[in-house]
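Q: Two folds, back to back.
A: First:
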Amino acid sequence: MKRISAVLAVGLLVSGLVAAPAEASSVTTAPLADTQATAVEVAEFWLGDGGANLRNATPYNVQTAVDKVFPRSGIPMDTKPGVVPPSPPSTSDAADDNKPVTSGKVFFVGADGQPHWCTGSAVQSQYRNLVATAGHCVYDTQRADATLDKWVFVPGYTGGTAPWGLYVGKLVFGHYDFRAYNDYDRDYAFVTVYSGVVPSASGGLTDFGRLVDNVGGQGLAWSQPLDSAVDVFGYPAGTHPDGKGHYTGETIESSSGRTAGAMVPILKAEEFIAVDSPFTGEGSLGSSWLSRYDNSSRMGYLNGITISVADTDGNLRYDTSLSPYFDGELAAVYGAAKASWSGSLLPG
């Protein structure tokens, strides 16, 4: 049974800027690498041996696909629409095409003890240190009250490289209902990350600066109307059920469509949104749905996160990506995460 959500007070849209709601009882936090020493060990695990663990990681295959997706004509809004504007990178022009390097891979060690990955996205925040992804790409749904181990983010990941540094997760902010009840209507998470690191010439680690300074941060939008245009960015991998349309998972892919309300009984999800997308579920979990995306700036407003995909017409081809609807509950989680400081993982 779903917990009855309190109506949250949020700021009104004023000249494109609103304050996210204050932290509410629905927000839960958990440490990932809560000390510098632990964070250094995590970074060395992924960057050691020439990044072998990054290259050998496989797509996370938990809850990658569902069936029996039903349309929903509308989703009740618990608060007025609001947005947080995006922030471009402050140190450089971080891309050479129209795909955002705010998107990247989140890597972690799963319950099976093996390295895996999902997709994530850098999001604007007070300390320019925030990553958004699917909740079950941070919380381990296969173990009680656990997070996934050795969690890091690599923006702009391409072919086994970390061109814009590696960022170790410090603290995850999620929704209580997802952790307590596996409520997939709340399957989202925001992770604060330490400043990035890259291997040094001496074999150690060198500080690479803050995430959003380097690659920019997408904005955020909640309580938006259905039938909104979004661009989806992620790292799908593998084939469709018919064995065709192979994705490598090595480069970022994109698709576009308009959002619609959806219900997914197998997940007990009543407030999902769906978008036409050919992505496979493996690898694309955590993909960013960006509204008002601008190709020239590569910036938009995060308005959804892929938590699963579906073949809705039964032709053995995935055709739909699914996300929780972003409402005031999502904004409250972001509101708590956006003001959480992380700093550098290197002493001094």
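A: Second:
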Amino acid sequence: MKGFRPDSKALNLVFLGLVLSAPGLAEEAQGHFNLATFLGQVLNFVILFGGLAYLLRKPLNEYLKDRIEQVAARLSQAEAMKQESLQKLEEARNRLNNLAGEIQVLKEQAREEAERERVAIRQEAEKEAERLRKLAREEIETMVRLSIRDLKAYAIDLSVSLAEKKIKEKLTPELHRKLIHRAIDRLRSTHEPSVNS
């Protein structure tokens, strides 16, 4: 940024104007009015400020031109920043509007995923229940077979035991001797024809 710096000619001219107008001001202070003095002061004033305007015109124009350019640049920069801020605000609003839609989509996806998981878990539970029912049926069938086998063995043992008990009750020593003799006779009869032949 260029600052306003008057040159030494302008300062000399201002000082000269003050020196020339000092006697007139002193006389006016004493109460006398002199037209020539007044015109001289006006002429000094015009020369002073005309010279100042002439001498300071170029630096003042450059200073004002620089200031105008700086202000214009700042205004342009401020406008660009404003446009950028408005654009960012619009993007933020769009993202906020889209965010509600995205949240809704995510909720819907989560709901669908939960439904799929629920169906998969139910199917898995049904498969597991069917497997357990099958295992239980197989185990029950095995237990029934084993129970029937044990029951048959028990029935056989019981039958044998009852038969033995009945035989023991009916088998008297006399009947026992008769059975033994009958068995011996049968053995003799089966062996005698082979011996004779």
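Q: And?
A: The chain has a mean pLDDT of 80.
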